[in-house]
Design goal:
The complex is a heterodimer. Chain A is an alpha+beta fold. Chain A contains nine helices and six strands, in the order αβαβαββαβααβααα. Chain B is an alpha+beta fold. In chain B, the strands form five sheets. A five-stranded antiparallel sheet of chain B has the order 10-11-9-14-15. In chain B, strands 7-8-2-17 form a four-stranded antiparallel sheet. A four-stranded antiparallel sheet of chain B has the order 3-4-6-5, covered by helices on one side. Classes of the chains: A alpha+beta, B alpha+beta.
């Protein structure tokens, strides 16, 4: 059987030569994110801004009509509402802003909507998040993301040199910011699942970065006579096949969630697909490129070279 | 050497078998739930409310109200203590969380303070000249909160149990919150109504001469009296005596019934002590009205026709459902604090089962697609990786069942994602073996050192990912926690399967055959 080969063996691509273009791209993405955040902000879900969400299914989907439903809900005068199609034909999401007054008014509104559309729709899901909880979740989300970044940074600092940990963390922040940017740009709902997607993306990206760094560290010890530029490029090339194969299997899984995982998970999958792409990019171009700004010590000369094939030994 | 190989084979086989046994209950259909897998030790995976349908409520006890009440209690305690110590005082009031008074005469300040500190040594006492200010310390408040919450959880549980909801879970969260989970219940409006009442029942006398029509809103009540609204008709006011004749704590039982006019009402039974007290007061006040007060609102104010002892009826304009609920909350006792609903999430059974089926499709499709890809890329080695991947899935299911961790919809996404990422460890190993082989090693050597060198990378890479998952776990609200648990389990099992099972398969295979023809073509 002829095996599939995504990356030819013995690639020798000069990745670092396009470092400048890669940086330019990153700067564009990041400044695009801030521009979009400034112009559009984020489309916060009720998890963070509080409010009411109902997922409804028309009892007779052929007769259901989004405008009719909207007009009906508008009669409640509940302030800002949004109604969108969700998944199957006849399924809708109804979002209602948090109500004036105390908690009781909020809870009462859910009942009002239910009563209003009870004849034509069945309620598949109803959610209410009070403003206090929304704020708490926001803070908890920021904490979770910062804490994990910090923990990762410390771990890499211990396992590698400090320069690696700086490079890795910049690459990670780059990923987190650009994923937030995607949500702002496409105005996807930013909710609890998004935080999960961002953190998982960060986990994936750091995984990628660590694999390349591991090789960089090894090659730094092995090729003492070569310059850093050569070693970085070689390390990226040596791990390239693995980088691509793992990205492909992960993307396969994510695309399947995107298409078959149901409407609730599709945004989540989309965020992760973007995250895997940007994470792979940042591991190669951001993390390693940043290493070139440091003068990293090649360490002690390896004394026992018996494990290294003869022609690779350091002379 | 040969023996150790046998032992390894045995151990791996055993661990996989154990995995299969614990994962098994999940593959047996729900219909013969109880009987057919009783021979298996494990349980099914615990599904989250978003998958099996149900309601989640986050409640907060309104402690401000409780502190206010306790402050009133503190005020009477201070009055009692000052009188007992024969200390003159004036302007004793409770306002804005502080009890304040002025002492009369020349009692030493220290003596005043010691009279009060005797009540509770953690109280905070300040004084300015003759003015004294007493309030609760943080420690007092913590104690009050703790006691209130223990009682509140008990009452919430009783009320929910009485509705006959299946396997409700009621837990405290943080200092003053309660999480209520109600599997299978997709419309919690009745529960919310039941928990929305504190259900403090009081019987108090109504002013004998000032009738409802004479009271103007905002007017002052005579000393010892207070103006209360009627529950169903807030415009109707009553002048009610502050002294409580009998309170709900003396209630023994309550049940829905019908009164003489055949309208719904609630009958109640008082405890022996309560009956005695009620009998005495009603006996002295025949012909006068008394008010039945629920949560500071007048339900009705009947005239006492004759002496009433241990049993009576609460009438009002009730519906049958209302009398059912009222009897229920009276039976279960009053909540020590009003409950505020901070968060509510309900999922209907239809959406839950839809999510499960799309989750299943995504998992199986993901598994097959990744397996095909691995086979195409690595040939026979791909088969090894696929066996490891399959074992990995079994281990994940087994661990989820064993730990009784909750599987949520994002959790399913986590499993599918793990399928994609789990092969990474295999890929790292295979690519490394390839490199070592190309570098001129013998095939067996290449395999051995490929594994050895890849392992340190695998551990580094996975541990860092584990940190992200841990952060998610600590962030942990419901579904997200479920996602992080599956992710963590996936990371650990994928490391195990790659390092142990794949290696075992590759080595076992290489012992038997000349690998050169099989390994990676270039």
């Amino acid at each position: 059987m002829k095996l599939l080969r995504l990356i030819p063996s013995n690639t020798n691509i000069d990745f670092l030569s396009i470092k400048k273009f890669a940086f330019l791209f990153s700067i564009l993405v990041i400044s695009g994110t801030f521009l979009s955040l400034f112009l559009n902000n984020l489309n916060y879900g009720i998890d963070f801004k509080g409010g009411i969400l109902l997922e409804v299914r028309a009892k007779n989907y052929e007769k259901s009509n989004i405008n009719e439903l909207r007009n009906k809900v508008l009669t409640l005068k509940a302030g800002e509402i949004s109604i969108q199609k969700f998944g199957k034909e006849g399924d809708y999401l109804i979002r209602i802003q948090k109500q004036e007054g105390d908690q009781k008014q909020q809870i009462a509104m859910i009942e009002k909507v239910k009563l209003l559309i009870d004849n034509d729709y069945s309620i598949r899901r109803s959610e209410f998040v009070g403003p206090t909880v929304g704020d708490e979740l926001k803070i908890a989300g920021i904490y979770a993301v910062s804490l994990s970044l910090l923990a990762i940074m410390v771990y890499i600092w211990f396992r590698f040199e400090w320069q690696f940990s700086i490079a890795a963390i910049i690459a990670l922040i780059h990923d987190v910011i650009s994923t937030v940017g995607l949500f702002s740009f496409l105005q996807l709902e930013f909710n609890l699942a998004t935080i999960a997607a961002i953190l998982t993306t960060a986990g994936y990206s750091i995984n990628d970065t660590v694999v390349i760094f591991d090789r960089v560290r090894e090659n730094l010890r092995r090729y003492k006579s070569k310059d850093h530029y050569y070693i970085y490029n070689k390390s990226i090339n040596e791990t390239l096949s693995r980088t691509v194969i793992t990205s492909v299997t992960t993307l396969i899984a994510l695309f399947i969630i995107f298409f078959f995982g149901g409407a609730v998970l599709s945004d989540f999958a989309l965020a992760m697909i973007w995250g895997v792409l940007i994470g792979t990019f940042s591991s190669i171009f951001v993390a390693v490129s940043i290493l070139t700004f440091f003068d990293i010590n090649k360490g002690e000369k390896v004394e026992d070279q018996s494990n290294v094939p003869e022609y690779e030994r350091d002379n | 050497m040969k023996n150790s190989f046998k032992i390894k084979s045995f151990l791996i086989l055993m661990s996989v078998l154990l995995g299969v046994v614990y994962a098994m209950p999940n593959f047996i259909s729900i219909s013969n739930n109880n009987v057919s897998y009783s021979f298996l030790p494990g349980k099914k995976i615990n599904l989250g409310l978003d998958l099996k349908g149900g309601s989640y409520l986050l409640l907060k006890a309104d402690m401000e109200v409780v502190f206010e009440e306790k402050l009133q209690g503190l005020l009477s305690d201070i009055r009692y203590s000052l009188r007992k110590s024969k200390i003159g005082y004036k302007k004793l009031i409770a306002k804005k969380g502080i009890v304040s008074f002025e002492k009369r005469g020349d009692t030493p300040n220290e003596k005043v303070k010691s009279a009060i500190i005797g009540l509770n040594k953690n109280l905070i006492i300040d004084n300015k000249n003759n003015k004294f200010f007493v309030n609760f310390s943080d420690l007092n408040k913590q104690e009050i909160t703790k006691a209130t919450m223990t009682q509140a959880i008990e009452i919430v549980r009783r009320r929910i149990d009485e509705t006959g909801t299946n396997e409700p879970s009621i837990q405290q969260q943080g200092a003053d919150r309660i999480i209520v989970q109600l599997p299978g219940l997709d419309d919690p409006s009745r529960i919310k109504k039941l928990l929305g009442k504190t259900a403090k029942l009081n019987f108090q006398l109504v002013h004998p001469s000032i009738s409802s029509d004479d009271i103007e809103r905002g007017s002052n009540a005579p000393p010892g009296y207070v103006i209360l609204e009627e529950d169903k008709n807030p415009s109707r006011l009553y002048m009610v005596n502050k002294r409580v004749m009998v309170s709900g704590e003396m209630l023994k039982d309550a049940s829905p019934t019908f009164d003489r006019n055949n309208s719904p009402s609630v009958s109640f039974q008082l405890s022996p002590l309560g009956g005695k007290k009620f009998g005495r007061v009603t006996g002295q006040n025949i012909g006068k009205p008394f008010a039945i007060i629920l949560d500071n609102k007048v339900v009705s104010a009947p005239v006492i026709q004759s002496q009433i002892f241990s049993s009576g009826q609460i009438t009002g304009s009730f519906s049958v459902q209302e009398t059912n609920d009222l009897a229920l909350v009276l039976r279960s006792g009053a909540l020590p604090a009003p409950m505020i609903i901070l968060e509510e999430r309900s999922v209907g059974p239809g959406l839950g089962s839809d999510s499960i089926s799309s989750g299943k499709i995504a998992s199986v499709a993901g598994l097959i697609a990744v397996m095909i890809f691995m086979l195409m890329t690595y040939g026979i080695f791909g088969i090894f990786a696929n066996i490891a991947l399959f074992c990995n899935i079994i281990f994940i299911l087994a661990l989820l069942s064993l730990l009784q961790a909750t599987l949520t919809l994002p959790g399913i996404a986590g499993i599918v994602l793990t399928i994609g990422m789990a092969v990474d460890a295999n890929v790292l190993i295979f690519e490394r073996i390839k490199e070592e082989y190309k570098a001129g090693r013998e095939i067996i050597d290449a395999i051995e050192s490929g594994f050895q060198r890849a392992i340190s990378t695998i551990v580094d890479a996975n541990l860092t990912t584990l940190f992200a998952a841990l952060a998610l776990f600590s962030f942990g609200s419901g579904p997200i926690k479920g996602f992080s648990v599956t992710l963590m389990i996936g990371i650990i099992t994928s490391m195990f399967t790659a390092i142990v099972i794949t290696k075992y398969l590759v080595l076992a295979y290489s012992k038997k055959r000349d690998m050169k023809n099989y390994i990676f073509q270039d």
